[in-house]
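Retro notes - structure team

What went well: the batch runner handled both jobs without manual restarts.
What didn't: labels got mixed up in the shared folder, which is why I'm recording both outputs here explicitly, each with its sequence directly above its tokens.

Job 1
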Amino acid sequence: MTELTCIVCPKGCRLNVDEENGFLVTGYGCPRGKEYGHKELTAPTRTLTSIVRIEGAIHPCCPVKTSGEIPKKLIIQAMNLLKEVRLTAPVDAGAVVVQDICGTGVDWITTKNM
């Protein structure tokens, strides 16, 4: 039995997930909590944020994020893709920096006009 705090809404329900019983989730206050508990133990994912270097802008770095969630096991590989990325201003928010992170179909995108 694994205990988790649900993060999909402000309630912060205490979930219990029974791995030996088909990942049975209890303690959730909404259907999203049940889905979160099951997913977190079977195939956890995350949305990532980071920065990349940019030239010709007021600030030396541009904030970026993933356009969706990626498997937790790919976080290090996804972050390593940004090490060599260099942007040149101007850059619009939502511009794709790296396409198809590790074959997931998710992109690194900018989050600020610079």
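Job 2
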Amino acid sequence: MIVPIEIDLELEPTRRVEVFDVRAEVLRRHGPVLEPYRRCLYASHHTTAGYLPQSLGARIAARPEGVESYLQLLRTIFPERAGYRHDQIELRTDVPADQRDREPINADSHLAFIAGGLHPSVSYAAQHPRPVYFVDLDGIHEGMRRQRRTTIFAYDDEEVVARTRVVVPVSGHPIDAISLKQPQLGLYDEVAELIARHGVTNGRVRLELGRDEKHAGLTLNEYETLLMQHDLAEVLRNPLGFAAEKARHAWNDPLAVPAKALAYARYDLVRALNQLVDALGLGASRVERLLARTLEVSASRFIRMRRSVDLPVSDARTPGRGALVEGTYQVPILVQWRQAEQPTREITITLTRFV
């Protein structure tokens, strides 16, 4: 019987936005260790670097220019230093005064991660011949390369060992973001108890919105107040707002008419979309639908947010006792862009064991 394995990789970007083929990196450093297995779970430890899911990765990587065109589209929608509140370090209560000059200015990277379809963890067929792309959106800060870490879990199958439901109180605000790691929710206590009770040392926890929950999604990112309550909320209200703000500043005209700025932002977006379309070789009708979805500036159509997030379980740090594998700033977050019908939303917790 083949025993599941776990591999840690350290990656060092040379540019702010860089793409790594992690499957190729594993082969180069460790040889064909993944070949005996049927499945692999790739997990990022970061909030501005993650994976393209297998379906999206296959589509945009079908042509050489696909990945770069996709990233250019994200950079167009979320330009660097476009007036994000998260980047106003002097307002950040989570950053000590003596560290503020070293804090990255990277709200654009967080928002691109959340809205752009990147996942903190993805599952691929182990024998799948195509690349597995790890996309770093903030790999360089003040000229210094960041050290990135990803963990690969190789296994043949997985079995469900527990499933339960929890209700999460939500506000009456139509747009909101709720940290699922808040102690008062008890969700993390519930997860830890399930892992311990069933003795899972290698597997994953899936958090998934209830079937009837609408106009909401889950992500795994940094829960910083200005980022979640201001910047992300603004994206949900007006997805092209920051692109328009960047356009206004590019003209050195802070009093530029917002409508005109938005028109220029849309022009830049259409140009970036056309480049992506050319790279992917999409048909004209699909182009029109893609443009319509994006320019409609509807959060439910624009944001590529999932209804579930996966958190790996491992005993690598505590042999014999499984625990969630998380990066320092990774927090599961419930995001809603329309008020819930009830004052709560339901989340299903599913624990599986890799075999």
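One thing worth noting from job 2: The longest strand covers residues 158-169.
We'll revisit the folder naming next retro.
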